Structure prediction request, 518 residues.
Amino acid sequence: MKARQRRLADLRAQVPEIEPRDAAARQQAGDATLIDVREPDEVAAGSPQGALRLGRGFLELRIEDEVPDFDRPLLVMCAGGSRSLFAGRALQELGYTDVHSVRGGFNAWKQQALDFEVPRVLSDEERARYGRHLRMPEIGEAGQARLLDSRVLLIGAGGLGSPAALYLAAAGVGTIGLIDDDVVDRSNLQRQILHTDARVCEPKVESARATLRALNPSVTVETYAARLTADNVDELFPRYDVVIDGTDNFTTRYLVNDACVRHGVPNVHGSIFRFDGQVSVFDPSREIPAKDGGTEPAPCYRCVYPEPPPAELAPSCAEAGVLGVLPGVIGVLEAIEAIKLLLDLGTTLAGRLLVYDALDQRFTELKIRRDPCCPTCGDDARAARAAGVAVAQYDVAGGPLCADDAVAVESETAIAAASADA
Amino acid sequence: MPQITLRIPTPLRGFTGGASDVAVELDDGEATVGGALRALGAKHPDVTGRILTDDGALRTFVNVFAGDEAVRDLDERVADGAVLHIIPAVAGGTAR
Prediction:
């Protein structure tokens, strides 16, 4: 008898075995964790759904982050049922009290026609690039794969869009859309860090593409050298998971808000003025804590600001100036909210307005609530959308927007959008 | 007499002599959000029109928060030591 066989016989005496079909039943019932300890190239060909994929090499170092409860039953699986005995014994020695090895491993699993999936597996290059994410239990391989399959649209490649796009590209958000009709001006370079002095006069979206590709060549950058309008917004928004609003004018902000509500896409909002910034997530499809202790839908931008200010009361940044670093703070906060939305992590700013005062270096968190009479997401609009009826759209260019005196535009786009919703 | 602090955002500090916090003292009968805004206006007359309409209603692009909750009714009472945040809609993303 070879040493290997002797050792395996010893291990079998210490680590009880379980049939694949029994392991699958226990995993599905939720009373045990199935751990696939095979190498990434083996997992790439298929692995049970919901299995914790933790290669043998790092098993002892990472298991505690994934399974903090030492009494949690663990079902360890490899390809043929031998390596899982070694792994199972190692887990026992760490202190796990209820460890089984899946007899016959993944080969037997497949023979018993049990369910499995072919997971997205990171390449060696991706594994190196996103290593710091992979080590975090909240992201890990599954979260990184989700980011790589995600699509984020940035409205504006300017002060807010620059830091947001850079960090999202670095984080491995697979597809970044950029819409901006402007060209790079030297006065932009005080804060718009996507662009360079050598690219003054180039279209901003092309300059942005060059910067993002230099940072992370694997990111797909979709560019639209156009202004966002009522004519293109409904074609664009449904193609993305999250929209990041970094525009410079109210007309576009209301357009972004209404289209995000219409298509159920979360709207990550950032706005800045001199030393002040505001950040929030507008997403009425999400429930947030209500005043009475229950839950209620989160508000949209129009709930908080029913009307834009008249031009004479709203000087633009071009007129009023802005601290160049400020959009860095606010744009990065927007990027963080986008990542949280994409990975379903933590608590987003839905229902909260984060206000930043750079002069006093002070963040203030304020509660914002939905307006039941909001023409975009209020009770009537929700009922109409649920019934598949066209929800009136509103001209945001200047006219009053409150429910009483706003004029509904029952345009062809309104009807087309409603039928898409239905 | 209840003392209230109004926190002024930078877009409006030009109307408060640069002050970021303005403290006002209110008579008990005037201890409401509207009373605090009127007291602010008494100290800094030019700021009133940026927050309230000529009829004395809150402008639709400005929110006032008492603590962390938005004020819907200017007759809402405010307690001694309350902080009111004035938050206007801000367009900028500095694309241009």
Remarks:
- Chain B has a mean pLDDT of 90.
- The radius of gyration of chain B is 13 Å.
- Chain B is about 15% helix and 25% strand.
